Amino acid sequence: MAEFQFQIAPLRKQHGLSQQQLAALLGVAPQTVSKWETGVTFPDIALLPELSGIFGVSVDELMGLKPLPDAAYIPSDKGKKGYWGRQLDYLTRTRSSFWNQDYIGFLVEKVWKLTKPVRVLDCGCGYGFLGSLLLPLLPEGSTYTGVDFDKTLIREGKAMLCDTDFAVSLHCADFMEWMPEKASECSYDLVLCQAVLRHIDRAEAFLERMVSFTRSGGITACFEVNRELECDGLYIEGMDYEELCSRTGLRSLWKKERECQGRDYAIGIRLPVLMERMGLVHVDIRLNDKVRYISPNQPDYEQAVSDLLRANHWMPEDLAEDTRAGTEGFINHGMSRQEAESYYSRQRKIASFLNGNRDNLSILQTLGLLISYGYKP
Q1: Is the pTM of this model over 0.85?
Q2: How far apart are CA 354 and CA 57, in angstroms?
């Protein structure tokens, strides 16, 4: 039973019982209850139904296999200031796998037909990666404004975009509260965001604010990874593809986070409907053509493998990490203990395979990046 985490202590305290009182109800010594709570010993299996009855929970909840019904939900901090600044290494290692440069050019020239100078607003711009891709492709005279509430990312963005010939302005502010100093700067030709909406609690409100900054005739565009497609998008030669595609526990987590926090991992695929509901017209959606392929025959093979391992926490040192805290976090966010432990077991298996075969890996990865856009009438 070492993998179980009996919830006797929190349930006892929740019901206002002392160790002595609980012991009396069960006909055992108070020292026995103390040993249960410290994990020295475990209750006899015959006592589990009685314990469950006293606390009004299921045996699975008593044993920590499922979250307690009244357990306080701890919100994810991915939408809070400071989080993404600490993930700068992750961002720089993953954003290169988002786009083919020629596809960005296709959007600018063939899809959106941006032939005249445009004013671009990048909402949740991070370190300005999207701006670095767009600016060389935009008509001369175009401007780029980025807003992000993480000062580390804004500082990195200013350093990266300082040499461009275009007018660039980056602001460290919460986009939901940000207002330009001049009223004339409240209207943009192209208002966009990339991989922002699925990480925040008020995605629809964020989208509405994006639309409010879009001029009449302008474009609102969102680039969001579809989580379901992403789960199916990893193939590693030599591993079981069906196991790699497993969503064990993830749907439980997504449901819990949407119910308790308002985070919507399906926002990417719902965006066209939301855009039409907000009044945009000629709404359309495309699937980014970027598919990442890593092979030993490629000149940048070692760097590509290193980026993949570090971005997904599959490095050798990650194998040695104690995952108990992460497991408890997943349980708090809706997974059963079995689902959380299965998830970590699969991650360790992937990491072990990749590190054990690091010189000869063939990997394919597609994120399912959906591009939704519409025009403001």
Answers
A1: no
A2: 42
